[in-house]
Amino acid sequence: MKWKEISVLTSGICLEPVAGIFHQLGTGGVVIEDPQAARQYVSRDQWNPESISGDVLGHDFIVVKAYFPDERQVMEELSNRLKEVERQFNSRCKVYVNEVNDEEWEQSWKKYYHTFKVGQRLVIKPSWEAYHPAAGEVVIDIDPGMAFGTGIHASTRFCLIFIEQYLKGGETVVDAGCGSGILSIAAAKLGAAKVYAMDIDDVAVRIARENVKLNGLEEIIQVESGDIVSALSNFSPQIILANITAEVVAQLVPVAAQVLPPGGWFFGSGIVDSRWPGVKKRLDNHGFEIEQLLTDVDWIGVAARKL
Q1: With the CA atoms of 61, 65, 70 and 74 taken in that order, what torsion angle do they form, in degrees rounded to the nearest 10?
Q2: How far is CA 80 from CA 27, 75, 84, in A?
Q3: Cα–Cα separations (whole angstroms), residue 127 to 9, 91, 149
Q4: Which of 80, 174, 182, 278 could bridge to 149 as Cys pair (CB 3.0-4.6 Å)?
Q5: Does 34 share its domain with 144?
């Protein structure tokens, strides 16, 4: 299958609006290349610089890449929406278009994506690599395909850390905007009794189901297609995972406040620091107590407890 790879070069302040536009256009997957974050990981010896493209390490702008089936005509609408972003944020966005196929995407992941550890116990392992876990390690087999959620990006790592720290076992969990299914799988492997995963992107739903099967968790994780903002009121979870964007996280907060019991957890991520005050205000106004914040470069993740 042929795909359009549309790359938008932009500044950090525009990252979230650009990613939001792509999701609204029905993208089959989003990739964020953040060179500042990559350079920090390399300097801390957390990443091997040879595993990262020199083009990523060498520039200062952020690249947001999205993928659409080749027959989809999205450029005119994308251009109009990006002009509005440029006007609102007084910043420039440059657009580049490339054509890729499924095989090229798969080989790209295999070249740059390797087994790594998050938190104390979680090990994220690409499906094509072998790994012998140490005692106590919990291995998540993942093939991200064309869905967001590899564990590398700060927003996903934040939620993985929260799951490891606060999930006790036996909870019902909702994964809002599940992407590759990585957070759902982590929750299930750490003891969740039931996980309901949802994504508006049909490609992500397909990939998440494949990853759930890869990990043998079909009896615990249910993956569905749909708008989690409108569907959340149908669930009665003890934990809600929301690794999306600040805008959607803020939209979820009032509904989360209704469905979570006292002591229930809301883990929000994908929040650019400039949008954090708005999310915090929503949490404060709807009866949540902020227990922990994680930050990395321009990104914030929050663990909030329902009072």
Answers
A1: -80
A2: 17, 9, 7
A3: 30, 39, 14
A4: 182
A5: no
Tell me the residue range of the domain where 160 lies.
113-306
pLDDT-based confidence at residue 261 (cuts at 50, 70, 90): very high
Q: Is the pTM of this model over 0.85?
A: no
Q: Report the DSSP pairing between strands 122-126 and 138-142.
A: parallel
Distance from the Cα of residue 252 to its chain's centroid: 16
Q: Could you count the other beta carbons within 10 Å of the beta carbon of residue 219?
A: 9
What DSSP element (H or E) covers 31? strand 30-33
The amino acid present at 56, given as its one-letter code, is V
Q: What is the pLDDT of residues 234-260, one digit of tens each?
A: 999 999 999 988 888 999 999 999 999
The residue that leads in pLDDT, 98 or 184, is 184
How many domains does one find in the chain? 2
HSE-CB of 58 using CA atoms within 13 angstroms: 4
Per DSSP, helices labelled H in 176-221 are: 182-189, 202-214
Q: Does 92 lie in the same domain as 187?
A: no
| Same domain flag for 148 and 92 | no
The CATH number for 27's domain is 3.30.70.120
Pair 282, 133 in one domain: yes
